[in-house]
Amino acid sequence: MPSRLVSANRCSDRPAPDSRTVLEFRNISFSFSGRRETIDVLRNVSFTCREDEIVAVIGPSGCGKSTLLSLATGLRKPSAGEVLIDGKVVKGADPRLGMLFQQTTLLPWRSVEENVELGLEIRGEPKRVRRRRAIALVQQYGLAGFERKYPHALSGGMQKRAALAQTLAIEPKVLLLDEPFAALDAQTRIIIQNDVVKICRAGRRSMLIVTHDIAEALAMADRIVVLSRRPATVKELYEVPFSREAASVADAPAMPGFADDYKRIWNALDISITGMGAAA
Amino acid sequence: MSEGLRHRLLVNLGRLVVLAAILVGAELGIRYGLLSRLFFSSPSEIFAALQAELDKGTFLPDVGFTVFETLLGLAAGSLSGMAVGLTLPQVRIISNVIEPFLMVLNGIPVIVIAPLFILWLGLGLASKVGISIYIVFFAMFIPVYTASLRLDTALVDALRVMGASRWQIFWKVIVPSSLPSVYTGLKIGSGLALIGAVIGEFVASRAGLGHMILYASGNLDTPALYLGIIALAAFAAALSLAVDAIGPLLVHWRFADEK
Asked: Model's pTM, two decimal places?
């Protein structure tokens, strides 16, 4: 099967009449004042994430990938442009968004169950409702028997599952992930990546995942947004042809076209390897 | 017998031997004239002094006075130190303005501040409690304040994304993250609370164990002097044991389900 990689210039969006745009970055620019000069982080970035779609954002280190997520969550405000959720401009924390952070954000003084309840507690749900939902999620995400354990007693993979349950407890329509699996060991990472994809698909949720791992982007996403170096612009927009065909995340690398796509994205990232012995 | 149990038995036995050696040594040393009665007292003399003080009817009130000052100073000083330590970092501009003043105040030795408290609050209970609050406040404020400044912002961000208000973030993140520092503050503060109360009594007072010790020392009443010191030591030990028993409840999650 020939790969159907397309560049941003030739094709903007895959036509899919039945799915509508849930999250949209519209002409986003972001800069902050450094000690001496203003640093431009993002310049005129536009892309969308539709219902039931997984979009990966990939780019060189420090290009401002994570900044995009903090703009969507309202933690930061864009210098120009706007982020829209369901067509409405984001002004602050939005109940339709859930975010999984890179570092563990479980509260160390709360048990797994109490941590999963946190989002509902903030919304003022009554204790009975919270507990019932938390117990169901804990079971669903393979944490049964660990309800009353504190985060420090959990392995890295289980902490990630608990954090995922915490994020999904409020039933967000859009899931934002900020390099969430970077600290996991290789096998646990694949298992959790696979779980996240399954959960996302099952709930017809949209997901935006920021990563610097090309294989992760190809294995999980339907589309990949490649950002350039700072100030970051959208350099390329790829569709992953086998995104819904691979049986699991672990099977993705064996899909036809994976190696070619990997190479093309690598080239688009324009990272020069000048390690030991590479200098002429 | 397990290795651990055997070790503990040996340690406790050793401690009993040391205590017995001190008591018997003092008793025999005084009785056979090896130790001066002016500098040392035997356990039986100290016990006689206890009975004499009880007969006078001032000993128990003196103990009660010092205990009350200490506990009140510890409670009020800890609570105010916690409250200021937690809230001050929330308003950056105010904390920046006030910080140097607090640090200078903290640097003044409490012994030279004590006369001021006597001047302001009189010879009675209030001045001792005031001095005690003063030093306990800093013992609690400094660790709590430092911890609040070094708060894990990732946790705060996670809650903000969930839509938490400032108030919710304060109670669900900032207060619980300060609890290990509160435990530290309580441990240091419990020792200082007693020091503050006794310093107040030493500077000027009409009652309390500090007053009794000062009086005994002025009268060269060595057994009463030792009695006062032993009573203070016993109270200090009890207070420290109480804090060690209650403190871990503040950081219960650290002791729960070790791997």
From this structure: 0.83
